[in-house]
Amino acid sequence: MSMDTFGQPGRVTDHGDGLWQIDLGFEEREGVIAAYLLGGDGDLALVETGPSTTLPHLLAGIRAAGFDPADVGQIVVSHIHLDHSGAAGVLLRDHMPRAVVRVHPVGAPHLIEPDKLIASATRLYTDRMDALWGEIAPVPADRVVALEDAMPFEVGGRPLTALFTPGHATHHITLWDPTRSAAFTGDVGGVRMQGTKFNLPPAPPPEVSPEAWAVSAERMLDLGAERLFLTHGGLHDDVREHLAQLVPNLAALKALAKERLLAGDDHDQLTAAIHHWVSAQVGPVEPGVLTNLEWASPSYLASFGLTRLLVKSGEVPDPKAAQG
Ligand SMILES: [Zn+2]
Asked: Please, are residues 250 and 201 in contact by the beta-carbon 8 Å criterion?
C-alpha cells in the first residue's frame, strides 16, 4: 500500500433518504471514484462498482452503511469502463449471490464476455492493467438485465429510470431517481472535485462525440434534478452551472488539441498541454485535488481520445499515416 494517501480513502457519506456515497479509496485517495448505495423496504441497489482493486473499500463501505453486501439485489452501472463496472463479475461471483446487473444493451455483451474490453483497455493501460483494475471476471448472461431508455424499474418501492446519454461513450446511461431528485451521472455529467468549480468532460478513446454529448447535457438538464452525484467527484448541487460547462469545456479541449496537433505536438506533448490547461482551469487548489482529477480523468487518455476524434473528423492529419 502506498503511503501517499489523500483525504479519507473509503469514507462513507450518508446523504439521507436511503442514499449512501461510498468512496472507493482508489490509489489510497479519497475523491477519485465513488459508488452509491440505495436502500429502502429491505431492498438494496448499488450504483457503480468501481474496479476490483477497490473491492475491500466497497465491501467495507456497504457494511459501514449498515448492510450486508450479500443483500444487494441490483447493480446499475453507468457504462462499462473499468473504473465504473470492472468489479461487477467478481462481486456477483463472490459477494452478491442474488444480484443482477443493469446496463445499457450495447454494454451488456462486454460484461458477459469481457475479452474485447480487456484487450482494448490493455492497449491503453499496457503493463499497469492489473495494478489499476485487478480481476475482470465475466458476468453470467442470466444475471445481466439490459436497460431500456426511460423505462422505470424499482428499488425499495421507488422508481429509477435510466436515460441513454451518449457523448463520453455511446453506451452511457444517466440514472434518474425522481423521489430523491438525484441524477447519477457517471462520466457524461463530467468530473469535478469537491471545492472546485471546474467541470472536466472526460474524453478517452474511442467514442467521444461532442454532438451526442451536447444532446445528453440538455437531457440531463431537463430532468430538473436538484442533486448530481458524480462517480468522480461526488455531490454537486449547483446543477445548472455544473452541466452548462460540459459543452464549452469539451469544445475548448478539442480546440486546444487541434491547435497543438496542427503545430506538430506528439502524444506526450499534447498530454502535457492538456494537463496544463486543466490545471489553469481549476485554479489555485491544493496539489492533491489536481492529482485526484488526473487519476479520475487522465490527460494522456484525453490526448488519445481527442486525437482520435480529430483524425476521424479529418480536422488533423493521421499521425500514423504520416509515419507510414
Ligand atoms: Zn468512462
From this structure: yes
| Ligand 1 center from residue 8 Cα (angstroms) | 24
User: Cα(258)–Cα(269) distance, rounded to whole angstroms?
Assistant: 13
Whole-number Å distance, alpha carbon 83 to ligand 1 midpoint, is 7
189 Cα–ligand 1 center, Å? 11
Spacing, Cα 41 to ligand 1 middle (Å): 32
- The number of beta carbons lying within 10 Å of the beta carbon of residue 4 is 10
Neighbours of 175 (CB within 10 A): 25
CA distance 195 to 65: 25
pLDDT tens series, the chain, 324 aa: 445 789 999 999 999 999 999 999 999 999 999 999 999 888 999 999 999 999 999 999 999 999 999 999 999 999 999 999 999 999 999 999 999 999 999 999 999 999 999 999 999 999 999 999 999 999 999 999 999 999 999 999 999 999 999 999 999 999 999 999 999 999 999 999 999 999 999 999 999 999 999 999 999 999 999 999 999 999 999 999 999 999 999 999 999 999 999 999 999 999 999 999 999 999 999 989 999 999 999 999 999 999 999 999 999 998 777 654
Superfamily of domain 12-248: Ribonuclease Z/Hydroxyacylglutathione hydrolase-like (3.60.15.10)
The CA 119 to ligand 1 mean position distance, Å, reads: 16
- Identify the DSSP state of 245: T
Where are the chain's structural domains? 12-248, 256-323
Entry pTM: 0.97
